[in-house]
Amino acid sequence: MTALLHPGYQDLPDAEFDLAEDELDDDVEHNFHSQHPDTTWENRLKEAGEAIRNEKKFSSQGQVADFLHRFGDVTRQCNVQAGTILHVLVEVVQHNRLVPEDVELLARALVEQAPDLVAVSNKDKKTPILMAIRFCQDRLLEYHPGPPN
């Protein structure tokens, strides 16, 4: 697929560039998020899940900022197989019996920085919203600032 840059950049040399089909995923709301097929990215996502599990409670903005700084490379992106950090968060809350309110600050920060990720499906064709409902973790749904897609 060939993409053209914004009209203001068309006079620059090499203003046209190629994108692999899976590099950008355009959802119906025209939000874009990176697709990462890299297995090292999946490992980083697992590390982020382990960090959430080990922390158990994010009660300060400092803890959230530290998490986002440490795992910023995976918090705004998705992978067809692994899904998103939001999928991981729902799974960690469910399987480790964490209290949703204890991860509220983190969940809100993740959704605020990349709200389009709530509509991304994982390999099982489930969005984080569907997973939260299925796992009876509907409190996690309240952390989205607007109506879910």
Describe this structure in words.
One of its GO terms (biological process) is proteolysis. One of its GO terms (molecular function) is peptidase activity. The structure is a single chain. This protein has five helices and four strands, in the order E-E-E-E-H-H-H-H-H. The strands form two sheets. A two-stranded antiparallel sheet has the order 1-2. A hairpin with a 5-residue loop joins strand 3 and strand 4. It has helices spanning 39-55, 61-71, 85-95, 104-113, 128-134; strands at 2-4, 16-18, 24-26, 32-34. Mean pLDDT is 75; it is low at 1-6 and 8-34. The protein has 149 residues and is mainly alpha-helical. The protein has one domain (33-143).
Number of domains: 1
How much helix is in the residues? 25-40%
Q: First CA to last CA: what distance?
A: 27 Å
Encode the helix/strand succession as letters. EEEEHHHHH
Walk across the major sheet and give the strand order. 1-2
Radius of gyration: 17 Å
Class per helix and strand makeup: mainly alpha
Assess the beta-strand content as a share of residues: 5-15%
Q: Main beta sheet: strand number and arrangement?
A: 2 strands, antiparallel
- Name the shape in a single word: globular
Low-confidence stretches: 1-6, 8-34
**How many beta strands in the DSSP annotation?**
4
Overall residue-averaged pLDDT value: 75
- Count of helical stretches: 5
Keywords: Hydrolase, Protease
Organism: Fusarium flagelliforme
Protein name: Intracellular serine protease
GO molecular function: peptidase activity
